[in-house]
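dumping this here before i forget
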Amino acid sequence: MTDRRPLGPSDLTVSPLCLGANVFSWSADEATTFDVLDAYAAGGGNFVDTADSYGRAADGSKGGGSEALIGKWMAARGNRDDVVIATKVGNHPEYKGLAPETIRAAVELSLTRLGTDHIDLYYTHFDDESVPVEDIIGTLDALVREGKVRQIGASNISPERLTASLALSEREGLARYVALQPHYNLVSRDTYEGPLQDVVADNGLSTLPYFSLAAGFLTGKYRPGTQVESVRSGRAGAYVETDRGRKVLAALDGVAQARGAEVATVALAWLAQRPTVAAPIASARTLEQLPALLAVQDLRLTDDEMAELTTASA
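structure:
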């Protein structure tokens, strides 16, 4: 079995690659979603990351489709207890923000779509600074006490608000964030490194970076003068025009060639070995994209390789 990593100060243990489900019911249909999930589980993965705003619902509206497909897959496979499910609240078009009543309504819908009585890790998707941390943490604590949520995490939050939330939990004996999901990768380091990383390290949280492959740029398929057919091509292609992007690609190419690995695998391995990171999140919209992601579970970069990539991305 693939090694499992503890998720912060919690009872959850997860595989070194978290499968991003943002593509399910968006650029990956039901059949492809099931194939990818089956292959991920067969490859030793147990950690799936979704959100109530991901994918298209059955009626074609935005949001809910990813959760619904994951729920359908778990029901068909009978494997709910083998999978750690993370989902998020606060960005669904009909349930925006983190007011207590919004969280309450949204979690019930997520549970229904997922076909489960509990969510393993429940994130605040985007912080809502119009709501006091006391109201947010208080509501999440109630969900934990009711057994609807096992652990809580935060995404897209300032160091100040994260610190205040953790202090409140400690002071009042309430549920405490165990994980942070920030934007973090080889071409976007300042979105996490610095004060935010310091708060995570000082409080023993686990980091689960999103955009781990920079919307596909760090797979190596985006090169000067090439056209890539993808819903993310505009965002990813922009990195090719930057000095940092070109330096990172060159360093990745060198390490990948020396190790006989895919560029994407090396990019994920760098992230997986960074301080505080428990598991990078990466998605596969086709079955063919998955092996390079799963391979991160078996690739350990040397100190020299880590330093080379870190220098190139500075």
